[in-house]
Amino acid sequence: MKNSSRQRIEVNVDQLDHVLDHARQAPLSEEDYQLLKTTLHAMADRLRPAQRSETMSELFGKQKPAPSESSQAQSAEQKPDEPAGHGRNGAEAFSGARQVKIAHQKLNHGDRCPECGRGHVYQQKEPKVLVRIVGQAPVAATVYSLERLRCNACGQIFTAQAPEGVGEEKYDATAAAMIAQMKYGSGMPFHRLERLEQNLGIPLPAATQWGIAKAAADLARPAHEELIRQAAQGEVLHNDDTSMRVLHLARAPDDERTGVFTSGIVSITGGRRIALFFTGRQHAGENIADLLQRRAAELPAPVQMCDGSASNTSAYPEGVKILLANCMAHGRRHFVEVMANFPDQCRHVLEQLGSVYHHDAMARRGKMSAEERLRFHQQQSGPIMEDLHAWMMAQLDEHRVEPNSGLGQAMIYMHKRWEALTLFLRQPGAPLDNTLVERALKKAILHRKNALYYKTENGAHVGDLFMSLIHTCELNGVASLDYLIALQKHAREVAEQPSAWMPWNYRDAMAQAEQGSASV
Description:
It contains 20 helices and nine strands. It starts with 12 loop residues before the first helix and ends with a helix. It is α/β, with parallel strands linked by helices.
């Protein structure tokens, strides 16, 4: 692993040749020795394969740690994992495809068999399925040429009626939803989508895309506000942030801070997951403090999962209580970073933590309730964590590890946050780590990587809204494109009762709305 504290030097091949030639005749000087050592270490760093992940198999070339005997017995009672598939997607996987039912062209249910002439044919339970995939533009266009007739006597012009279903707007709800999906869900900047559409023969200027997205965001805002309200009532709140650029961001005259961040919050409430994004000058702790101000006073304290940064817990509202849980993956990463210098000690820590993660995976596969998972961790993971903590303290107290070394700092990091790191042993539903929100923040990171920045604070708010809606759909297994279309087509109903138009229940509300309009 690369040592970031190594001094940077400039060296060329002629210098190295001179050092080696001189070493044939006399011992190396201290200066030449340091030059040669640094060069060899740099070459070794370059030749070492890049670490692709922090898994045990990647770090040590081995499988996950062997579980304890009691956990093996627990695992044996669980339903075995389903065998892996062959890699192809069946027809049921194409949930967003247009479904076309085709009746037999010559035979009907109950007709006599044309082959043998004796029996009758009956419809099979499963039809034969063909999947055909075609390419098309993300935003397609249709040009309708309506014939016009003019009277040569009175000059009256008669124009053909547009086909049924052709709306009054040039850009309908599906176009707005696709633009938002491409920009804020897939990270494609407006200018890149403009070039793609231009190559496909459909002009779609970036400025036009922004206007369409902004109008759609205004229609979807009631649903977004309801998501924020429901997220505040969650049992578990994950939060973290990442840097972001906003070119024109208004600041108070006395505001000395210069940073701009996108905070991610994932709330788990009633088995559902809600993702929220907030871009601006505030850190993640300030944004979650604003969210908790909307929390019902009668609810118990939520679990807040975050890393050990003080900015994640810096601004709680008065009277608000939380149960703080810190991310074990962050504590584990400190040992991964110094593993090359302390392989035996780091391996011991990583294997113990690996056993805890193995138990959590067993609880997840067994579909345990929060209380069952808590008891299981207390029985299986509790002794492991106690032994690990005692071992780390012994290493420091008995001066086997230098406190200022990388390993010592990793142990001290864990010790200072031990109560928060082990909340999963005391509180039902407390997670082990913060990877859920870190994965969510990849939406913002993808936008930053491709679009580089938001131009204005208003543009950032539009991006936050669509990222929140899209990623919430993804977390709950809902097609985000269909959801964005529904919010626009039923904007009046959404504004009147936004709680009925959440990603997990909007189809019921949409069916009722369509049924009501059909009966009128």
